[in-house]
Amino acid sequence: MPAVYVVSIDPQASTVWWANRITDLPFDFSQEHETPENLAILKDTGARVHVIVNQKGGVGKTTVTLNLAAVVADVMKDSEDLLHVFIDTPGSLQDQYLLQEALKYAHDAIVVMPPEGLAFDPTARTIEQVIEPSGVPYTVVINNWDPRDGVLDLEDTVAYIDAKGWQRAKTVVRRYKVHTRASVEGKVVTQYQKNRASFEAREDFYRLALELGFGGR
Ligand SMILES: Nc1ncnc2c1ncn2[C@@H]1O[C@H](COP(=O)(O)OP(=O)(O)OP(=O)(O)O)[C@@H](O)[C@H]1O
Ligand SMILES: [Mg+2]
């Protein structure tokens, strides 16, 4: 059994589309939006369960889920036990019950947020109305920052998160065309070609995994 298992409960299921295109997935994968109660079995596996959330669509939940899972699977590849489960969730308000179901079985939540003002209110809503009432500890991860845009938006976002008192990952996942392309080609970071941009793009996820306590290299 691989050390990592990815579950999607997103009815839009872009993860499935992606996962089906990936050859040699480094983790197990299943789609459970029709039967979220199946997630209950995760409690008995002894694995750490992480839910990737933001009810704002298109912020990078699926990108972070699959790539974080890929690097953790790489770091843990010698393990015989299931150690980490990553649950990808819907980016919409309609499916809030699915998110709440996943939070019942989660040890922690990873809130994905882009460095842009438009994302502030929807992210706050998700955290304050759904995650905090669940009691599940969470960390906000800034994703999709383009260094060429300068640091202003990034600094504003960091200031906003810190003023809210939310726990924040120091690692920022940068915007790289390779990630956008990979989602079309069906590749995860550990399968990227070896060149400088791919290396840096991949390193963000290794660094994030290490910072979140999922193991490093
Ligand atoms: N760090 C990044 N660098 C480049 N492109 C990115 C990055 N993060 C996300 N993207 C791109 O942004 C788009 C949306 O990302 P993704 O599908 O992961 O978001 P999502 O939150 O899962 O969306 P939804 O709410 O619809 O499920 C995709 O085209 C993806 O490739
Ligand atoms: Mg998604």
Could you outline the blueprint of secondary structure elements for this entry?
Blueprint lengths: L3 E5 L5 H8 L6 E4 L16 E6 L7 H15 L8 E5 L7 H9 L3 E6 L6 H15 L3 E8 L6 H13 L8 E2 L2 H9 L10 H16 L6
Parallel strand pairs: 1-2, 1-4, 3-4, 3-5, 5-6, 6-7
Helix pairs in contact: 2-7
Bound molecules: adenosine-5'-triphosphate and magnesium ion.
Explain briefly what this protein structure is.
It contains seven helices and seven strands. With 217 residues, the chain is an alpha/beta fold. The chain has a single domain, classed as Rossmann fold.
Fold and architecture overview:
The chain has one domain (4-211): Rossmann fold, CATH 3.40.50. Helices cover 39% and strands 17% of the residues. It has helices at residues 14-21, 61-75, 96-104, 120-134, 152-164, 177-185, 196-211, and strands at 4-8, 28-31, 48-53, 84-88, 108-113, 138-145, 173-174. The protein has a seven-stranded parallel β-sheet with strand order 2-1-4-3-5-6-7, with helices on both faces. The longest helix is centred in the C-terminal third of the chain and has 16 residues, at 196-211. The chain binds adenosine-5'-triphosphate and magnesium ion (MG). Residues 10, 12, 14, 57-63, 91, 143-144, 173, 175-176, 179-180, 183 line the site of adenosine-5'-triphosphate (ATP).
